[in-house]
Structure formats: C-alpha cells, structure tokens
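Hi C.,

You asked whether I'd gotten around to modeling the 223-residue construct. I have! Everything is below, sequence then structure, no commentary in between.
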Amino acid sequence: MAIRVLLVDDQPLLRTGFRMILEAEQDIAVVGEAGDGLQAIDQVRALQPDVVLMDIRMPRMDGVEATRQITGPGRDGPAKVLVLTTFDLDEYVVEALRAGASGFLLKDAPANELVQAIRVVASGEAMLAPSITRRLLDKYAGHLPSGDEPVPDALHTLTEREVEVLKLVARGLSNAEIAADLFVSETTVKTHVGHVLTKLGLRDRVQAAVYAYESGLVRPGAQ
C-alpha cells in the first residue's frame, strides 16, 4: 500500500512543489494539505495519514504544538511527523522532537532525500540524518539540563549493554555503526534498541536520543 502523506506548510507554493515531487513516486500518495497547525490536526483526524510533513513556523498554531497534539504522549495513532526546518537549524526543532516528531529534514534538501525521508519515517526508522540531529542537540544545549540532576530511575532498568546502545544512539550512530562499534550484528542492535524504547516508554530513536541528553546520560558536545 502507498504511504499516505499530509503536507503542512503555510506557503502554498512549497506545498505544490512537495506534492509534485511525492506524487511522482508509485509508493507515496499525498492525501491532503494544511496551511497551519490547527488545520493539520483536523486533517490528521479526517485523513489518517501515515506521515505528516510538518513546517515549524506557521500562523494560528505552530508545528511544535501541532506535533505535540498529533504524536505526543498518550497518542497511539499511526501518523508520524517529519519536521521541515531551515538550513540554519531552527531552534524549535528540539521542542518538536520532544513533542513526538520522528525526525526532521532541511527545507532545501534534494528531492531524492525528501522521498527517502518519507519512506524511512513511514517504516519506523525514525532517526533521519543522525549526525545532524546530534549537531542540533549540541547547538541548543542551553535548552537541556546541565547533567547535575539525579539519573532517572528508568535508566536503572536498562542492562549495561542497553545503556551503551542508548549512548551511541544519542551520538547519532546508525544501527550499522553501532554494530561495528560493539562488534555485534545489526539484528542484535535492533533488539537492544527495541528493549530501550520499551523500557523507557519512548516512541522512537529520536526520542531516545533526546532522552539521553535530558537525563544527563550524554552531555552535549561529549564524544
């Protein structure tokens, strides 16, 4: 079945451009558009898309609050949010990731990257461009705790190897890179990541990376 996509941006011309790119793909179907966050929420309820391509800065309701209401805590719907950001790494993207976004993409990314990002997020592989995600978290370290806070009790439920994997996810490594670093198979890494998400009650790899920073397990800028 085709991946159902909802386009959310306050610039009609950009939405038209995204639609043209995505509709050229046999496995992607654009099911609707919205010009602000409020419309996005209504469209998600009505159209049940698989992926929402979400702008951040929009009138009436921005993309952060819309993301929170679509995919935040307690939301079990199928829609995953892929946030669009500007080249200079929009500071609100950190908040969007916390709110439940599954990843982000630069607005000026090539068409093939947009298409691949939609497929990656739809498949559940949420950590898109992990190195960029880490740079973004480092850039806005001021939004995150200092690391002096007590370690959350939930972290004590993880095994030593699961903690290792979580740290590497937060550093922006892919499953293949983690497997090479720990000398295990990618299948084993996927199993560990799954256990981490389940034990910590997290939606995906993006939230796991943010959690690692917020809990103080990983310090911004640390190697």
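If it helps when you're writing up: The first helix runs from residue 12 to 23.

Thanks,
B.
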